Amino acid sequence: MKAMVLQAPMGLDRLMLEDRPDPGTPGAGEIRVRLHGSTLNFHDLGVATGQMPAQAPRVPLADGGGVVEAVGEGVTEFAAGDAVVSCFFPDWEDGTAQIGDFSRTPGDGIDGYAREVAVVPARFFTHAPKGFSAVEAAAITTAGLTAWRALIGDGQLKAGDTVLLLGTGGVSIWALQIAKAMGATVAITSSSGEKLERARDLGADFTLNYRETQDWGAKVREWTGGLGVDHVVEVGGPGTLAQSIEAVRVGGHISLIGVLTGAAGEVPTAALMGKQARLQGLIVGSRRQQQDFVRALDSGTIRPVIDCTFALEELGDAFRYEMSAAHFGKIGVAW
């Protein structure tokens, strides 16, 4: 089978297309999946560039969408022909957060899904949303589930709530679609007027260019009549957190998801205390939460936004495009 493999030392020029032995038939409790698509995440880029250390050689990509070809003894959840999608934390099946590292995350601690075939335990996958392509299904594994958990699982979003989203990457655009489907009112930021226009087309109620308005937290709070938003999906990290705290209402909820502006920095603790807001870090979600998300998507009201799609052998170019930050939504890879 064909696979893209990262060789040491990690870097985009160390991505190699290789022929690897076919993994064969599934054993007890396993499934054999013919993979057809993936999407890129910030985490995948970190691994591919060596910024997030992983052991080489490593098959990258945490997201994988495909079709079950065979099931092993004892597997009753899946059957040959089922469309399936991978789990970011395959060992976290249900309950509260239990994992704080990536030692068992596909594409990092173990091989990911930039390959044609995978034979893995059945719990590594769930059913895919009905009618989704492999690339669309793969978009839920990391970015989609993160947005779902932030707003629905942890945030308990309800109709009429106000939400602030930072940027127009995969998590934020998923969160925009989920929030609007739930009847929320949404503000979103970007440095691109064109991207803000596309966000308005998806239902964003208030848009703001953060390069033109540096005190965007106060502007968002002003938009809410001075109250502040109920939820913030915070993907920036230390460089944006102070503005997010400014924007949130007293007693509101901030989901700390990303570290795009750095892994460490100053937290305005007095401002956070004064807001009495809940600042919660999170990393994707459990298999059970993914199954809940899939059931919601089966209603047919939301489909992921795929900016563009590359071929498997073009994976290096796909990562370079991700680094340009020109994309809106998700970058797909199909084979």
Describe this structure in words.
The model has no long low-confidence stretch (mean pLDDT 96). The chain has 335 residues and is α/β, with parallel strands linked by helices. Helix 3 crosses helix 4 (170-181), helix 3 packs across helix 9 and helix 6 (216-223) packs parallel to helix 7 (241-247). It has ten helices and 15 strands. The strands form three sheets. Strands 3, 4, 5, 6, 7, 14 and 15 form a seven-stranded mixed beta sheet that branches. A six-stranded parallel beta sheet has the order 10-9-8-11-12-13, with helices on both faces. Strand 12, helix 8 and strand 13 (278-281) form a beta-alpha-beta unit. It is globular. 47% of the residues are buried.
Write the layout of secondary structure elements.
Blueprint: E1 2-6, E2 15-19, E3 30-39, H1 42-49, E4 65-71, E5 83-86, E6 117-121, E7 125-127, H2 134-138, H3 140-154, E8 162-166, H4 170-181, E9 185-190, H5 193-201, E10 206-209, H6 216-223, E11 229-234, H7 241-247, E12 248-256, H8 269-275, E13 278-281, H9 287-297, E14 306-311, H10 315-324, E15 330-334
Parallel strand pairs: 8-9, 8-11, 9-10, 11-12, 12-13, 14-15
Antiparallel strand pairs: 1-2, 3-4, 3-6, 3-15, 4-5, 5-7
Helix content: 25-40%
Give the biggest sheet.
Answer: 7 strands, mixed
Q: Tell me the strand percentage band.
A: 25-35%
Number of helices: 10
Helices and strands, in order, run as EEEHEEEEHHEHEHEHEHEHEHEHE
Counting DSSP E segments of at least 2 residues, the number of strands comes to 15
Tell me the Rg in angstroms: 20 Å
Low-confidence stretches: none
Structural class: alpha/beta
Our measurement of the CA-to-CA distance between the termini, rounded to an integer number of angstroms, reads 12 Å
Q: What is the multimeric organization of the chains shown?
A: single chain
Average pLDDT metric: 96
Shape: globular
